Amino acid sequence: MTAPIPPLTLWLGAAGLLPFLGLAGGVLAGAEWAPALAAYGATILAFLGAVHWGLALAAPAGESQAAAGRLALGVMPALIGWVALLLPLRPGLALLAGAILATAAVESWAARRGLVPPAYLRLRWALSLVAGACLMLAAVALR
């Protein structure tokens, strides 16, 4: 059995979705909030990478073979987020949506190797699906 997700983690994770939901809703309603949504998406993508930088720094000696991959996963999301912000809004939002989901997919691969806690992975997929959907809906809604 895997450890449960701590309640504070659930609350903070859900709170992190509020800007995605609100900003995407605003874009769908015609507000010009897409730049703010892209900025928040890039910020969250960088945060997701930072988790893996932290895992690499705190890893036990038995996981040293995973250090390079963890460090790369720590940096790549921030670089992709930066590129997304340099693109026009539609492709930038779509890139952010894909990158958030791709990061979760890589984490699933890592979890099968015991490198990511299962409770974290369950929460990440739930949050990532909502965030990715918000980013993609906004990208499609832009004219």
Notes on the protein architecture:
With 143 residues, the chain is mainly alpha-helical. It has a domain of 100 residues. The chain is built from five helices and no strands. Helix 1 packs parallel to helix 5. The chain is globular. The chain starts with 6 loop residues before the first helix and ends with a helix. The model has no long low-confidence stretch (mean pLDDT 92). This is DUF3429 domain-containing protein. Keywords: Membrane, Transmembrane, Transmembrane helix. It comes from Falsiroseomonas tokyonensis.
From the alpha-carbon coordinates, what is the Rg to the nearest angstrom? 16 Å
Q: Strand count, sense and closure of the main sheet?
A: none
Mean pLDDT: 92
Helix/strand structural class:
mainly alpha
Through-space gap between termini: 48 Å
Strand content: under 5%
Low-confidence stretches: none
Percent helix, as a range, is: over 70%
**Number of H- or I-type helical stretches:** 5
Q: What is the strand tally? A: 0
Short description:
This protein has 143 residues and is mainly alpha-helical. The chain is 80% helix and 0% strand.
What descriptors fit this protein?
membrane, DUF3429 domain-containing protein, single chain, transmembrane helix, DUF3429, mainly alpha, 0% strand, 143 residues
